[in-house]
């Protein structure tokens, strides 16, 4: 009897897990986890109404399960989550998913999926992703973090077979980031009155990645 109850319990758990995690999202997670290392030259443009910042350049080095390293003489990334092209922040904690139907963008139809972490240690409460089920990758996600507000990340890929995005557009809530003026860069021109105002402020950064030395598992 005990063995029969245990069998029923395990079967139920497997069934629920299968129902609660979208197979397309799992496929994308597995593809991303095959990436072991890469380096990339990055250019960055910032679109913030009260700041004029010239285009920046940097080099990044990625090693799986380690913090991404950034090398630049004068490079400011706002916010740092913009470098997360591996989408590690979405998948590093256990999660479930909820199918939200389909979404039409630029003539293409994508699956909309909520990604909800089940670990309290996760730094976000929910993310909504647009999934390309044909090319097996995420093209956009909105993530609601617990400390830094909401981010909207849009990704484009130069090749149909590419796993890593070549271009990112990251929209974020500036007041939640609380950026000190000294971190804007030495050549930044800042409208201090607008910067110090309490009005809601958003910013967009545009990043272009030129990859090299990509290794896979």
Question: Would you mind describing this structure in some detail?
Answer:
A hairpin with a 4-residue loop joins strand 8 (137-145) and strand 9. The chain contains five helices and twelve strands. It has a ten-stranded antiparallel β-sheet. It starts with a helix and ends with a strand. It has helices at residues 2-20, 23-33, 88-91, 174-177, 192-196; strands at 35-47, 51-52, 56-63, 69-71, 95-105, 108-117, 124-132, 137-145, 150-156, 167-173, 189-190, 202-216. 20% of the residues lie in helices and 44% in strands. The radius of gyration is 20 Å and the shape is globular. With 217 residues, the chain is of the alpha+beta class.
Task: Give a quick rundown of the structure.
The chain has 217 residues and is an alpha+beta fold.
- Shape annotation: globular
Q: What characterizes the major β-sheet?
A: 10 strands, antiparallel
Share in helix: 10-25%
Uncertain residue ranges: 1-19
Distance between the termini: 44 Å
| Helix and strand composition category | alpha+beta
Radius of gyration: 20 Å
Strand coverage percent: 35-45%
Mean pLDDT: 81
Total helical elements: 5
Strand order of the largest sheet: 4-3-1-12-10-9-8-7-6-5
Beta strand count: 12
Order of helices and strands: HHEEEEHEEEEEEHEHE
Give me the secondary-structure topology.
Layout: H1 2-20, H2 23-33, E1 35-47, E2 51-52, E3 56-63, E4 69-71, H3 88-91, E5 95-105, E6 108-117, E7 124-132, E8 137-145, E9 150-156, E10 167-173, H4 174-177, E11 189-190, H5 192-196, E12 202-216
Antiparallel strand pairs: 1-3, 1-12, 2-11, 3-4, 5-6, 6-7, 7-8, 8-9, 9-10, 10-12
């Amino acid at each position: 009897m005990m063995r029969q109850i245990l069998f029923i319990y395990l079967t139920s758990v497997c069934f629920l897990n299968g129902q609660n995690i979208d197979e397309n999202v799992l496929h994308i997670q597995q593809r991303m986890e095959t990436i072991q290392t890469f380096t990339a030259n990055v250019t960055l443009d910032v679109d913030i109404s009260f700041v004029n910042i010239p285009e920046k350049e940097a080099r990044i080095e990625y090693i799986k399960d380690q913090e991404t390293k950034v090398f630049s003489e004068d490079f400011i990334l706002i916010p740092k989550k913009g470098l997360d092209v591996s989408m590690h922040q979405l998948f590093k904690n256990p999660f479930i998913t909820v199918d939200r139907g389909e979404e039409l963008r630029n003539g293409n139809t994508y699956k909309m999926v909520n990604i909800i972490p089940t670990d309290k240690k996760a730094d976000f409460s929910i993310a909504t992703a647009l999934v390309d089920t044909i090319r097996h990758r995420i093209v956009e996600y909105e993530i609601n973090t617990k400390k830094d507000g909401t981010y909207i990340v849009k990704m484009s890929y130069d090749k149909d077979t590419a796993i890593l995005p070549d271009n990112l557009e990251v929209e974020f809530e500036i007041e939640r980031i609380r950026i000190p003026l000294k971190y804007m860069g030495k050549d930044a021109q800042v409208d201090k009155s607008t910067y110090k105002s309490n009005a809601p402020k958003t910013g967009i950064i545009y990043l272009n990645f030129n990859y090299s030395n990509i290794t896979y598992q």
